[in-house]
Amino acid sequence: MHHDVRRNPWSVVAWLALLAAALMMSPARAQPDHAPAWQLQTPDGETVRYPEDAQGQPTVLLFWPSWCPYSRALQPYVQDIWKDYREAGVKVWTINIKEDGDPMQAMRERGLSFPLLLNGDDLIARYAIERTPWFLVIDGQQRIVYTRPGNQPSPVEVAKQARGALNRLLGARAVPLPASYPAPYDLHLRKTPSTARQASAAASDAEWRPWAAAVLAEVRAEETVAGVAPLGAIDDGRDAILQARALWTQRYGTEPTRTQAPYRAFRKGNLWLVSGLALPGRLGQGYLLIVAADDGRVLRLSGGDQP
After folding, report:
1. In the chain, where does DSSP find H-type helix?
2. Alpha carbon separation from 277 to 66, 202, 263 (Å, rounded)
3. pTM score
4. Chain centroid to CA 162
5. In the chain, helix, strand, coil percent, each to 5?
């Protein structure tokens, strides 16, 4: 039977509604069975390639941003897995994604030293990442054998499942399981005094933004720092902080640069400003970088009032 939609225009509306409903009920994008290849850099600029650098061994991947409380809760258990399993050949890499802060500073504050890789956002779609932390155990043939489920399981349960999966892959090289696990860090349930102190360490936006805007307003277009090559386009505050930290480390040293945290980045027009020692009442006393966003020309680079 032929139905003339011209005689019943509402049928078109109904058909479109049914199509929209069908699309809404379509299953979510399937998770990959095999881990896609990638190439990322460490904070020191070294390149890590997967799967080449896994050397056919089981691999653990943790995708995390510093602001995610569930990632923070899981990280100490990943640190222990890295320490316990590296002699058995297991590769552990943590990959920073969706970041607007300083992952290295976050690791220092949390006492973490596991391998860190930066700028992993291009892998979000390829790994079909839906939430953080995204935690995987992968065998030597790139098959994903464990993915942290989405019902917010306790970090202890995730650690137990991951260790069990690794031991099954290792066989005779299995690592003895811990007799007990430390209590989970419950940042996702309550805000502890220590995290409140960390949150208040940096200057507030009400102090930081007007100061940064005033500094940039004084910058002249012809300013430049002699002997410093352009850094290339800088699209976000994370990259601006990473570039600043690299320049400060080169000029002032690693340890002095570390003492400059917390770092902050601010953009106005085509200019980025990054400062160290971004503490209440101390703005302008720390290290400073001002750089053009479009091509990375360094306009100002200084040690502030620091000795």
Report:
1. 10-24, 69-85, 103-110, 123-126, 155-170, 193-199, 205-217, 237-252, 254-258
2. 19, 8, 6
3. 0.57
4. 21
5. 35, 20, 45
